[in-house]
Specification:
The complex is a heterodimer of chains A (about 90) and B (about 140).
Chain A: H1 6-22, H2 30-42, H3 50-83
Chain B: H1 2-39, H2 58-70, H3 95-108, H4 115-120, H5 124-133
Helix pairs in contact in B: 2-3, 2-5
Classes of the chains: A mainly alpha (about 90), B mainly alpha (about 140).
């Protein structure tokens, strides 16, 4: 797919790597996360349009932010549970 | 009173003893060390500085990468796994799997492989060569 444009290919691989790294602390387990991430990327393998690929990368960046937010939320909830004993 | 005085004198004696012995003992010890080094340098090759590279052998690196690949769930045909295996052609891994393998290698040898170089690793042999070229790989 990205054989036309090596920089896009690099970007996709880099974002995949970052997402994989983020998934290590995923609440449902790394395996669960990894298989789903792989499926998500593999489902887009036929996309050849550059604009589409760029859109996909942007979506991946958005997901990255979401996962970070999820971790913050998880931390916040854990802290709250410990301190907010009624 | 008597006890503290006794203790103090004893302590002084202990402290003084090595001080007097030191100038006599030290040159002797040092010269014997230097002589030993000159005569048998092979005895000192076992000593390694903290700053020295880990000194991984090729077999070691290859073995560790093979173990890592063996435990990788996408590698189904372990019989095809050898020092020359190509990730895509022999082991049937796609580019995403290769990223995972490279990440696992990074972790195994506690180094960071830049994206450019990571992209060039397509086979076991390339990975081994890359690790051997890194001085800070463990």
């Amino acid at each position: 797919m990205a054989s036309f444009n090596p920089t896009l290919r690099h970007q996709v691989i880099a974002v995949y790597k970052e997402l994989l790294f983020l998934g290590r602390e995923y609440p449902l387990g790394y395996e669960y996360y990894r298989t789903r991430l792989r499926k998500a990327f593999a489902s887009q393998k036929d996309v050849t349009d550059e604009a589409q690929i760029k859109k996909g990368i942007e979506r991946a960046q958005f997901v990255k932010k979401e996962i970070e937010a999820l971790y913050y939320l998880k931390r916040y909830r854990a802290l709250r549970q410990r301190y907010d004993k009624i | 009173m008597f006890r503290t005085a006794l203790l103090r004198s004893a302590r002084q004696a202990v402290r003084a003893a090595p001080r007097w012995q030191a100038p006599i003992a030290r040159p002797v010890a040092r010269s014997s060390l230097f002589q030993a080094k000159q005569i048998t340098p092979s005895a000192f090759q076992a000593v390694r500085c903290y700053s020295a590279s880990a000194g991984l052998s090729k077999e070691q690196v290859e073995g560790r990468i093979m173990d890592l690949l063996k435990n990788f769930d996408k590698v189904t045909d372990v019989s095809k796994l050898n020092g020359e295996s190509h990730f895509h052609n022999d082991l049937g891994l796609d580019s995403l799997d290769t990223v995972e393998v490279v990440m696992a290698i990074e972790e195994e040898f506690s180094i960071e492989i830049p994206d450019k170089e990571a992209d060039a690793i397509h086979s076991v042999k390339q990975a081994v060569d890359y690790i051997l070229a890194q001085p800070d790989a463990h």
